[in-house]
Design a protein that fits this description.
mainly beta; 26 strands; Immunoglobulin-like; signal; transmembrane helix; single chain; Fibronectin type-III domain-containing protein; 3 domains; six-stranded mixed beta sheet
Length: about 375
């Protein structure tokens, strides 16, 4: 035992002939607190007691291992109020604020004090349950709030109540989102008609932490064309051919050009009506071939208007949701003898965009990407 004490004493600065470390010269700060500055939960204020006569230095340390975060220290000069705002850009980590008195050279002259542990967790991602486009172009989406276990319940920055979510939709030409409504505890929302392809979803309401947690689901667009004969023999058949193209988004960190792919397997309907005031009825159905082409054939009883419809498809695990696409109505005149060759009809769908415009627009988007990022509108990055 005596030998161990001698060994310990031999390790002290005095025994080694070194000057002893100076004792703290001022009382340690106390009552370090963190609190939201308002009910909006956008900024956090740090306050403490006991160092108004000296300079104070604040650092942010991780609660788990005590390591100082790589952020510039905050220094509050003597005579100034003992308060400062929390560092921005924090998320998904538990922290404490360390406060210590320092001299004019930055040397610590007191013992440190710490705030209570607080987390900076963002709201949990919701889970998209369904995305169902409607015939009027709107999109009904439903979601389920994400599960969350608070690692530090009761900390001073916990926000009471359930997580609220903000419905969002992507911009057509850029990799960002529009907020469509105020934060809500509802679990469904109808997205007004938007140009497709588009992504729709929700993001958790931000409470001061960096960025937010969101989720979205794709809604693909369509480019549908059809050739409908101008004449057909009464008592015979009418045959319509065409092609269905699926439109998707190919986004990088800026522009989002539209990409096309053959719409293999797309369900299609041939509809007819007896006149402009009559209702439409389905007379034939088919699925697009591997290359997106299709053929629809139906009995022909006399002069009729025809159109091709690609119906809406709800989101499914193996596919994106699809909006409704419809070709322009074309009149096929009934004749008693052999019908003339060819004829044209169809046209552009009521959704999507002409391919020439897409090709030109895609090139321009790259050049305009930098300018778009400087727009004054408030956006949320995907």
């Amino acid at each position: 035992m005596i030998a161990n004490m001698v060994a310990v004493l031999a390790m002290t600065p005095a025994a080694a002939g070194l000057p002893a470390a100076p004792a703290p010269s001022v009382p340690a700060p106390s009552d370090v607190r963190v609190a939201w500055t308002s009910a909006a939960h956008t900024d956090v204020e740090i306050t403490w007691e006991g160092t108004a006569a000296t300079r104070s230095r604040l650092t942010l340390v991780r609660a788990g291992d005590g390591v100082t975060e790589n952020l510039a220290a905050k220094v509050v000069e003597a005579g100034r109020p003992s308060r400062a705002l929390l560092w921005p850009g924090l998320h998904d980590t538990d922290y404490r604020v360390r406060v210590v008195a320092v001299d004019s050279d930055g040397a610590e002259i007191s013992e440190p004090a710490f705030s209570p542990v607080f987390d900076t967790d963002r709201g949990p991602k919701a889970r998209i349950v369904s995305v169902v486009p409607r015939e009027d172009g709107s999109i009904l989406m439903t979601w389920r709030p994400g599960a969350y276990t608070d690692p530090n319940p009761g900390d001073p920055l916990d926000v009471p109540g359930p997580v609220r979510y903000i419905p969002v939709a992507t911009l057509f030409e850029f990799n960002e989102y529009d907020d469509l409504a105020a934060p809500t505890t509802a679990t469904s929302f109808v997205v007004p008609p938007r140009r497709t392809p588009v992504g729709v979803g929700v993001r958790a309401e931000s409470v001061g932490w960096y960025d937010d947690s969101g989720v979205d689901a794709p809604v693909a667009g369509d480019r549908l064309t059809a050739t409908i004969p101008q004449q057909a023999t009464i008592g015979g058949t009418v045959t319509v051919t065409g092609r269905s193209i699926k439109l998707g988004r190919l986004c990088d960190r800026g522009p989002c050009p539209t990409v096309e792919e053959d719409d293999a397997g797309r369900e299609l309907r041939l509809e007819e009506r007896a006149g402009a005031t009559a209702g439409w009825r389905t007379v034939a159905t088919a699925k697009a071939r591997k290359d997106g082409t299709f053929t629809l054939t139906a009995p022909f009883a006399g002069t009729r208007d025809y159109r091709v419809v690609a119906p809406v498809l709800a989101l499914a695990p193996d596919r994106a949701a699809r909006v409704r696409a419809v070709t322009a109505a074309t009149t096929t005149t009934g004749v008693t003898g052999p019908a003339g060759d060819g004829g044209s009809g169809g046209g552009l769908p009521i959704t999507g965009a002409p391919v020439v415009a897409l090709a030109v627009g895609g090139g321009l988007l790259v050049a305009l990407g930098a300018a778009l990022t400087l727009t004054g509108r408030r956006r949320r990055r995907r």
